[in-house]
Design goal:
Helix 1 packs antiparallel against helix 2, helix 2 runs parallel beside helix 5 and helix 4 packs antiparallel against helix 5. By secondary structure, the chain is mainly alpha-helical. This is TRAP transporter small permease protein. Part of the tripartite ATP-independent periplasmic (TRAP) transport system.
């Protein structure tokens, strides 16, 4: 099961990276079209869709790597059972919020499909298409939070080392 979950998180991150490359392509196309005096309609909208897709699909992978911003001020004062209880409480709340986010983003994509909702830009893209990436990303994030909660309750959760998040500064 662990290998399957890690594959899911890594696959979503790889897809996010692919969307980032697509975003780069859209930005370069937009720049080139301005310099060469031709217009490609919808490049701004598609760049936005690709950026949103990359961000949402990378959420679970980022969580599992300990790269999400955490406020540990209170947590650093707690020890033993109190610290574990607080971690479980925080993860339970985060799991609930992630599940709600997944349900409502999936519902949004479904409703956009059902109502044939299209973007207001010149591209007239059916909105359910870019919203699928948001729905998939939030579902995978919810799975990752459930995974973290179960690992914490079983005492198998590994925290990022102190100062690990600062390594890129």
């Amino acid at each position: 099961m662990r290998r399957l979950l890690n594959f899911l998180y890594d696959s979503a991150a790889a897809l996010a990276a692919l969307f980032m490359v697509g975003l780069l392509g859209m930005v370069l196309l937009s720049i080139a079209s301005r310099q060469l005096h031709f217009h490609v309609p919808g490049t701004d909208a598609y760049a936005g869709y690709l950026m949103a897709a990359a961000g949402f699909l990378a959420l679970a992978h980022t969580l599992k790597r300990g790269e999400h911003i955490r406020v540990t001020l209170l947590l650093n004062f707690l020890k033993g059972g109190a610290k574990k209880a607080f971690e479980i409480w925080a993860l339970a709340i985060a799991t609930l919020l992630a599940l709600l986010f997944a349900v409502y983003s999936s519902k949004l994509a479904w409703q956009s499909h059902e109502f044939h909702d299209i973007s207001t830009g010149s591209d007239a893209t059916p909105l359910w298409i870019p919203q699928i990436a948001m729905a998939v990303g939030t579902v995978i994030l919810a799975i990752a939070f459930v995974d973290e909660l179960v690992l914490e309750m079983m005492g198998q959760r590994v925290d990022a080392p102190t100062g690990e998040a600062l390594r890129n500064e």
